[in-house]
Amino acid sequence: MMGSITRGSAKVMKGNGAHTLDKWKRKMGEQVKVFFIERGWLLFLVGFLLGRAVVLSSVSPFALSFLASVWLMRKDKSLKVMFAVVAGSITLHWHHSIYVFLAMMLFFIFAFIFHKFRNQQKLLPFFVFFASIGTRAILYSFSSDIEAYDWMLAVVESGLSAILVLIFMQSIPLLSPKRFKQSLKNEEIVCMIILLASVLTGTIGWQIYDVSLEQVLSRYLVLWLAYVGGAAIGSTVGVVTGLILSLANVASLYQMSLLAFSGLLGGLLKDGKKLGVGTGLFVGTLLIGIYGEGFEALAPSLLETSVAVLIFLLTPESWIRKLARYIPGTNEHSQQQEQYLQKVRNVTANRVDQFSQVFQALSKSFSQVQLHVEDDQDTRETDYFLSNVTEKTCQSCFKKDRCWAQNFEQTYGYMQEMMTSLDEGTFQNKRKLQVDFEKHCAKSTKVIETMNHELSFYQANKRLKKQVLESRRFVAEQLNGVSEVMGDFAKEILKERENHDLQEEEIIQALKSMGFEIEQMEIYSLDAGNVDIEMTLSFYDYKGEGAKIVAPVISEILDETIVVKQEEISPFPNGYCYFSFGSARKYVIDTGVAHAAKDGGLVSGDSYSTMELGAGKYAVAISDGMGNGERAHVESMETLRLLQQILQSGIEERVAIKSINSILSLRTTDEIFSTLDLAVVDLHDAAVKFLKIGSTPSFIKRGDQLIKIESSNLPIGIIKEFEVDVVSEELKAGDILIMMSDGIFEGPKHVENVDQWLKRKIRDMKTEDPQDIADLLLEEVVRTRSGAIEDDMTVVVAKINRNVPEWAAIPVMRNAQ
């Protein structure tokens, strides 16, 4: 017992010690960041080294450019940076320090004179140019042996200073405490490399034994960025750094080739981690060293490379990864972008879900108000009605007290029963009630007349309040439908790509065993009926292998029919081809339509539509506008347009039809109505829903059997509120669905039982082609009327077929589980 307590205490102390160490490291890192970044001592150090930087023996374009950039970007640190630059120049030569100090003073004079100008950023390169060349002109005026070469160097120095200002202005924000950008542009990366290479020139001449400090640091910089950014960034760093160092020391011109080649090799070997990148530097040092200055200079160069690689190996991986986040193309940058996108998705989904909850709460609020209103509405309306009647009759009656004070229950019962009888129109048949009320009331005739007069107002008020309740019910259903759609949308946003390692490995193994070269494969979904796979393959001569071989192989593995949804074929041999694979529908629908306008006109009041609703659903709809001609056509087309837009938004079919009914009934005061015959087929299981609003029956032909589908609902727009009856059926492969307008169903002349006549005609048809059936049925109806078309006629025929893929699944060898 004591031992276990001691071990537990030791674990707690160890955990506390690790936590304390992490806390100390984090605190030290924050203090270092505050010291160097926020207080500006990093700018001080960079300024000191740039003050020593000289190229072409006497040209110093870095110091003035850096000070000008700091003055523009961080004015509060410009004085400290100026002292750092002057201090660095003094360590090089006193002549150099005089030039640097005078150039800075002249720059500050220009900046003070033109400080009222708004575009300081555009004027800054000109300030630097004239400050640099002006200082050289002042110094040259004290010397008598100035040649044209010196003036040329002065112009070059001034031009480089102006250019470096533009470069340093993009680099200074990277050394600032607040950076809002999460990644660097390629131009910013190059500018930062130029700044770092310029800083390294300030270390020229610093040696530890035979090891040159600028060579160690330049190779360390190439190692770091080649490891982070790959061959492109590594070679770029090598070229830029080597070029600037070779300008500072012409004797080491071969260093540019060494750094560039080492950066390229290190970037190509980055998959070998730090050792691979270090190996690339060693190989580059050996090859370029032997080629450049022979074996005598090889030993110091290898020693410098060894020191750089050693420092690189000792560099914490976390530091390198922090830098990698800012460079596009790296895994760290991609992960950070994915985290950002995930955060955006989460925020968007939360907002959508909040809106969904708001709509749901509003829907419940309307529903609750409606329930409360319906509970006591009848009692209240009756009291209002009777109070109006008694006010006009009983108030001046001498028997008022006897009726309402002494016999309240009996009087109220008579009045209520009479009100109900008058409202229902049965009062004349109730002789006993009339006789009893005449005995009870002295002004019975006046009371009955007043009730008849007030009844019209009562009924109008009742209808109005009923419309208000129906509107509330409609709004509640609409809000609830929108809430459900937004809730589903929020779930879709949050639904990330799932990992399917087992299936992915099985697909790759099967395709590789058949000789296919797979460049890339992404599995986004393996849900039944909603498979989504993208693949990039290489083909020497593509002959349709995607649909003939790859899709059947995937079908066998997933036990589901998979087809090629999209393909992009490379025009070159051995080129990479892109394929998108998805689930094939279990059923497909072939449709045929036949229609004719009244009297052979061009415009029919009937309209029809076939539409894909997404999620594997297919809808067939017929709408018949009231009457004929242009107006009926517009009304039926408007009904179908609204239906398609609402259904494709994801709202349930029943709510969609109720919405259309309310919209059309509230849109106009004209009595314009339209029927709607809607069939929604699920292509995954062939289930069908029929929603018939004032439409004629439909028929399902299954071999010799005919199934009649009908429902009783008034046309759209006649009443504000109605219940939509949904009729569900299960279709089978080979079933034929026949939908028609009333012009077909009521069209046959001299036919007593149209229902049986249609069934017989449909059953006797030998063809199963949907278009032929539609044409024959329309022709048969027209023939019964001797060629006359007395109403608009429309027939839509849809045949349900099982989807048979062009290529069968290919069996594959699977590993034993």
From TrEMBL:
Q: What is this protein called?
A: Stage II sporulation protein E
Predominant cellular place of this UniProt entry's protein: membrane
* GO BP: any one term: sporulation resulting in formation of a cellular spore
Xref: Pfam families? SpoIIE, SpoIIE_N
Entry's InterPro entries? Bact_Sigma-Reg, PPM-type-like_dom_sf, PPM-type_phosphatase-like_dom, SpoII_E, SpoIIE_N
- EC no. given is 3.1.3.16
Q: Which domain of life is it from?
A: Bacteria
Subcellular compartments? Cell membrane
| Single GO term (MF) | protein serine/threonine phosphatase activity
Alphabetized NCBIfam families for the sequence: spore_II_E (TIGR02865)
UniProt cross-references to PANTHER family, sorted A to Z: STAGE II SPORULATION PROTEIN E, STAGE II SPORULATION PROTEIN E-RELATED
Q: Which organism is it from?
A: Pontibacillus yanchengensis Y32
The record lists the lineage as:
Bacteria, Bacillati, Bacillota, Bacilli, Bacillales
For the protein in the UniProt heading, the enzyme class is: hydrolase
Quickly give the catalysed reaction. Answer: O-phospho-L-seryl-[protein] + H2O = L-seryl-[protein] + phosphate; O-phospho-L-threonyl-[protein] + H2O = L-threonyl-[protein] + phosphate
Record's GO cellular component, any one?
plasma membrane
Chain ranges of the PPM-type phosphatase domain: 590-800
What is the protein's known function? Answer: Normally needed for pro-sigma E processing during sporulation but can be bypassed in vegetative cells. Activates SpoIIAA by dephosphorylation.
Give the UniProt keywords, A-Z.
Answer: Cell membrane, Hydrolase, Membrane, Protein phosphatase, Sporulation, Transmembrane, Transmembrane helix
Q: Which SUPFAM superfamilies match?
A: PP2C-like
What membrane topology is given? Multi-pass membrane protein
Question: In the UniProt record, does the keyword Cell membrane occur?
Answer: yes
Q: Per the UniProt record, which residue ranges are transmembrane?
A: 41-73, 93-114, 123-142, 148-168, 189-209, 221-254
